[in-house]
From TrEMBL:
Gene3D superfamilies tied to this protein: Aspartate Aminotransferase, domain 1, Type I PLP-dependent aspartate aminotransferase-like (Major domain)
Family: Belongs to the class-V pyridoxal-phosphate-dependent aminotransferase family.
Residues modified as N6-(pyridoxal phosphate)lysine: 185
Domain of life: Eukaryota
Name of the protein: alanine--glyoxylate transaminase
GO cellular component: peroxisome
Gene source species: Fibroporia radiculosa
Top-level class of the enzyme under EC nomenclature: transferase
GO biological process terms on file: glycine biosynthetic process, by transamination of glyoxylate
Binding, substrate: 339
């Protein structure tokens, strides 16, 4: 392998895409390969096996498909819900559904969830593990336990786009039926892969459908034989996989599951990085959107601006210091806060000093903004 170093660039610390390692970027530059070739088959096969490891599942069925994270939602809607069936959505809306709301900065009240589940039969319950607009972390284990106790036939569907590989997720032990995610956040790969893992229970529910899946491209009838073939060691075709991205994904998964750090150490480094940033934020006198540390994500931080400040006072000043952060997203407070991502190599390779760079840029940007307001 050639020694490869990516060219100097601004530090990308938004809640995805994230910084990727030199090895991952180099793997993406693999010479063109046939997706049906004997050399490529084990590359996708390895991705399927290592994706299970990241989610602590031995029997879950991964689907690794060209698309963004959003394609995971299409897969859920097309394969698991039939006409007339209901979905209960915690936090954010998508289907024709009932919703249980959480106040800004908090996660849902499990008593409310239990009430909703007892009132009606739901085919699926969905929740977002880390809400990218607020940095609120839901208690996935407690939500799944509530469903199993009150409505055990309901499938537990988790949007883990902003949490997989930065937060602990134990799919088998916690009883989560679907985890859907994307390549460009905690999994440390360029954007372009939809990654979804379905429990065997979810696969059985899919196989028992009375009506066909309601999508062509997202149909598991098409993709399940393809995923099974590649895992067995033979090629199969429905639609061409993004071959180079699959090489990049395998390299990142290898670094995540077979590198010097265990997954537990990886999660601990995310907690450590976020704590350092939070301490610096508190020192600047700023507050976070999550109302308590217990519901705050470890792979991103959402920070309220002081009165009289807008995101446009800080985000461009960070950019001038070569640190790319994101503005607000939640409609209620959009211009009153900004967001910083700290997933993957930015926290797992402390020698890069990314957290230090973010903290110094934050201090300088606030000092600069304060000075220009006085002037
Ligand atoms: C980023 C994100 C998405 C959307 O993923 P895309 O890859 O942009 O389609 C969905 N849910 C959450 C929680 C996210 O953070």
């Amino acid at each position: 392998m050639t020694t490869f170093t990516q060219e100097p660039h601004k530090l990308l610390v938004i809640p995805g895409p994230i910084e990727v390692t030199d090895e991952v970027l180099y793997a993406n530059a693999h010479p063109s390969m046939s997706h049906m070739s004997a050399d490529f088959v084990p590359v996708l096969g390895d991705c399927i096996r290592m994706t299970r490891e990241v989610l602590f599942t031995t029997t879950g069925q991964p689907f690794i498909i060209a698309g963004s994270g959003t394609l995971g939602w299409d897969q859920v809607a097309a394969n698991l819900v039939e006409a007339g069936e209901s979905a209960l959505v915690l936090n954010s809306g998508y289907f024709e559904v009932d919703e249980v709301y959480a106040d800004l900065g908090t996660s849902v009240d499990l008593v409310e969830v239990e009430k909703a589940l007892s009132s009606k039969k739901y085919k699926i319950l969905t929740f977002t593990h880390v809400d990218t607009s607020t940095a609120v972390l839901s208690d996935a284990q407690a939500i799944a336990a509530t469903v199993q106790r009150v409505s055990p036939d309901t499938l537990v569907v988790m949007d883990g786009v902003c949490s997989v590989a930065s937060e602990e997720i134990r799919m088998d032990a916690w009883g989560i039926d679907i985890v859907l995610t994307a390549s460009q956040k905690g999994l440390g790969t360029p954007p372009g892969l939809s990654i979804l893992v379905a429990s065997q229970k979810a696969i059985k529910v899919f196989e028992a459908r009375k009506t066909p899946p309601t999508s062509y491209y997202a149909s598991w009838k098409k993709w399940l034989p393809v995923m099974q073939a590649y895992e067995r060691g033979s090629a199969a075709y429905f639609a061409t996989p993004p071959v180079n991205l699959v090489y990049a994904f395998r390299t990142s998964l290898t670094q995540i599951t077979k590198g010097p750090q265990s997954l537990e150490e990886r999660f601990a480094l995310h907690r450590k990085g976020s704590q350092r940033l939070r301490d610096a934020v508190a020192e600047l006198g700023l507050k976070q959107l999550p109302t308590s540390p217990a519901v705050a994500a470890n792979g991103m931080t959402a920070i309220y601006l002081p009165d009289g400040y807008a995101a446009s006072d800080i985000v461009p000043r960070m950019l001038k210091r070569n640190v790319v952060v994101a503005g607000g997203l939640h409609k209620d407070v959009k211009d009153k806060y900004f967001r910083i991502g700290h997933m993957g190599v930015s926290v797992t390779d402390e020698s890069r000093g990314d957290i230090d760079k973010i903290i110094s840029a934050l201090r300088e940007s606030f000092a600069d903004a304060a000075a220009s307001k006085k002037a």
